Each structure stands twice: as structure tokens, then as C-alpha cells.
Amino acid sequence: MVSSTLIVAAMGAALPVAFATPSYPVANGTTPSGPTSTGGSKPALQTVAVGQNGLKFTPDTITAKVGEQIVFEFFPKNHAVVQANFDSPCKPKDGGIFSGFVPVPEGRANKTFVVTVQDDKPMWLYCPQNAPMPHCPQGMVAVINPPASGPNTLDAFKAAAAATNGTNATAPSGGPTGGEVSTPGAAPGTPGAPGSPSSSPAPSLGSATSATISGFLGLAALSAAILL
After folding, report:
1. Axis-axis angle for helices 4-18, 206-227 (nearest 10)
2. In what order do the strands lie in the sheet with 141-144?
3. What is the pLDDT of residues 63-98, one digit of tens each?
4. Cα 127 from Cα 168, distance rounded (Å)
């Protein structure tokens, strides 16, 4: 007859194995890890209000590094951002940026115009709206990365714009160029779209738990039979 001491010892050795936490293979042979970076840090942002405080850009002087983004937010009633040459205020520069007109009945517009700074050269800007009066000659101008010295200052650009009071400002034909029109707060993707993360069901512990209990019950039955 088998010693009851040996049977108890065998059961004691089997218990940790029977109730051990089951392990599962990692999908595709990968190893779980913590959160990782998804492309590095985001570019720095600077916000410019267009028409929030009357016919002006706020601020009207912006200093930005290459790669930084300028976010133009629009306020009543209907403004746009156009790039000009310093010596031709209120007229669009060939190949310059243009936000398109953004009508705003009240409050802040539900879209912005985002420009990424490509170099450190000055960007002279104006609003081309002419109703009920020309905005550019009224001083609605701005500059990104003004010269550190010399006669080409924002005040000089503003004075040259004021001198065109008898001539309406002009806007480029066509739609926005040189920047991106976006909606603040929009989701980065839509559910089900390619590249969107999808949820996966957590692995079930039911089958593993059932197998563990069945194994332990079988071991107990075998031990009882030996004792008998």
C-alpha cells in the first residue's frame, strides 16, 4: 500500500502547478512593451487672432523657427490671410500663402488656417477684405520673422499699406494655398478607417481555469483510489 505521506507530498507538489497563472503566446512573436513614441515631439504652435480686436492681427509680429506652425483663428465678420511682398502691400505675392475668406457670424470660426514655417525669411501678411472698407489700408497687416534691422519694419509696411487707401486690396484667385485648413478639435481619424486602432477582445481565462480544476479533481480521485 502506498504511504499516505507520499500521496500528500505528491499532491502538495502538484497544487502550485495546477493553480499557476496560465501563460499565453504573444501575437506575431512580439514582446509586450510599454507606450512608445509615435513620431517624436509635435511642432511648436503659435496662435494669431484675425479680426478679434478690430481690423488687426493679434499679435501682428510673430517670430517663429523653421518647422513651427502658425495657427490663424478667424473672428467676425469675414477675413482672410494673404502674403504680400514688402514693397507691394495689399497685393498678393506670387506663390504666397492664402487662407481663403472665412465668414464668421459671431464668435470664433470653426476652422483655422495652419502655416508651417519653411525658412526664416520675412512673411508680410494682410487681409484682402474690402467691405465695408478696405482692411489692409486700415492697418490690418502683420509679419512673420521681421528683419532684425534695416528699414523694412512692420511700421513701414503698415504706412505703405495706408498709402494705397484709394485702391482696393486684392486676393488671389482660387482656394487656400500654402497652408492647411483644419477644424479645431476634430478627431485624428474615423472609426473603421485604415490605420485606426481597433479593439481586440481580451483572452478568456475560462478554458484554462476549467482545465486546471479538472486536473486537480482527477488527481484527488486517483489519490482516494490508492488509499482505498
Report:
1. 180
2. 61-62, 141-144, 123-126, 82-84
3. 999 999 999 999 999 999 999 999 999 999 999 999
4. 11
Q: Position 188: which residue type? A: P
CA–CA distance, 190 with 93 (Å, rounded to integer): 37
Burial 175-186 (b: 16+ CB within 10 A, else e): ebebbeeeeeee
Q: Is 35 exposed, middle or buried (0-12, 13-18, 19+ CB in 10 A)?
A: exposed
Q: Contact 46/89 with Cβ under 8 angstroms?
A: no
Question: Which residues make beta-bridge pairs with 62?
Answer: 144
Amino acid at 111: K
Which three cell numbers mark 27?
501575437
Structure pTM?
Answer: 0.64
* pLDDT digits 0-9 by tens, 6-27: 444 444 544 444 444 444 333 3
Lookup: cell for 90: 495689399
The amino acid present at 221, given as its one-letter code, is A
DSSP-derived secondary structure for 70-104: EEEEE-SSEE--EEEBTTBTTSPPTT--B---EE-
Cell numbers 476634430 correspond to what residue? 186
CATH class of the region 42-183: mainly beta
- Asked if 74 and 50 touch (Cβ cutoff 8 Å), the reply is yes
Cβ 121 vs Cβ 85: under 8 Å: no
